[in-house]
Amino acid sequence: MKLKRFDEIQESEYENLMVEWEAEGVRISPYAMTRSGKAFTEMLKKWEWDESEAVREKGLVLATLYFLSDDSGRLYGAIHLRHELNEHLRHFGGHIGYGIRPSERRKGYATLQLRLMLEKLRSMGYDKVMITCDVDNIGSEKTILKNGGKLQGIVEHEKGKGKVFWIEL
């Protein structure tokens, strides 16, 4: 299993992942991979834009989307790295958002995906990262704790209450 940048994945595997997720009728996480009716080529352009300085003009931060993949190219989930924090992300959101496709949940893939991202961040020179989850998302909280997360507090956000964690690298 490895993390692949968005520009290293196959369109058919992305389509397979999204069809399953959309069929479940649940919120897609990370939101950055939601296609909203866009073709794969449009999504690639959007993800490229997310890494460009142009995002700053919109008040956003540089971000890169990665996918958890096996050797055959099957995608298990996605993880979104926000390279820095703005005021909104400092309150709730943090550096990382992630999710695992519905059929592969509760099998340890989220923990693995986050661990691989933390290893990548270490090699990029990060010393700590902020990550959050909704207060009722027990699976995500366990994933964060297994990867060294330390609870900093509970905050109100636009969709309810969330837990804020920091992970020392």
Question: Can you tell me about this structure?
Answer:
The structure is a single chain. By secondary structure, this protein is of the alpha+beta class. It has a single domain, classed as Aminopeptidase (3-Layer(aba) Sandwich), CATH 3.40.630. Helices cover 34% and strands 28% of the residues. β2 and β3 form a beta hairpin. The protein is globular and about 40 Å long. The chain starts with a strand and ends with a strand.
Which features would summarize this protein structure in a list?
single chain, 169 residues, alpha+beta, Aminopeptidase, four-stranded antiparallel sheet, three-stranded antiparallel sheet, 7 strands, globular
Helix-strand layout with pairing:
Blueprint: E1 2-5, H1 11-24, H2 40-50, H3 54-57, E2 63-69, E3 75-82, H4 87-91, E4 96-100, H5 109-123, E5 128-134, H6 138-146, E6 150-157, E7 160-168
Antiparallel strand pairs: 1-2, 2-3, 3-4, 5-7, 6-7
